[in-house]
Amino acid sequence: MEKSLDKIAWDDLFGEICANCKGPKRAKDSFCRCCYFELPKKFRGALYTPMSDGYASIYDEAKDWLRIEGQRFKAQAEVGARKLP
Fold it and tell me: What pLDDT was estimated at residue 70?
């Protein structure tokens, strides 16, 4: 049986492992500090939405953003760092 989106978000929120990078995080933080600050402001603010008002959907969108866009930004930063004198 698959977990519901709400159950996954709840478990991740109260867990101590970041769902994005698998690094340590504090319980009640959505992501570890590095991943959290990689998110655009619209996600960072929205992650304070109560569970009853749609937190799970916002959290799921933030995870998708980190998986797709976050990887692209990391790759661009690595290329830029190699070009530095």
Answer: 78
Domain range enclosing 22: 5-83
At 42, the amino acid letter reads: K
Q: How many domains does the chain have?
A: 1
- Residue 24 phi, psi dihedral angles, 5° rounding: -70, 150
Is residue 12 packed enough to be buried (19+ CB in 10 Å), middle (13-18) or exposed (0-12)? buried
Alpha-carbon span 59 to 41, nearest angstrom: 13
pLDDT at 78: 54
How many CA atoms, within 13 angstroms, populate the side-chain half-sphere of residue 4? 4
Better-scored residue on pLDDT, 82 or 32 = 32
Tokens (6 digits) for 18: 């970041």
How far does CA 15 lie from the centroid of its chain? 13
pLDDT in tens, 18-41: 999 999 999 999 999 999 999 999
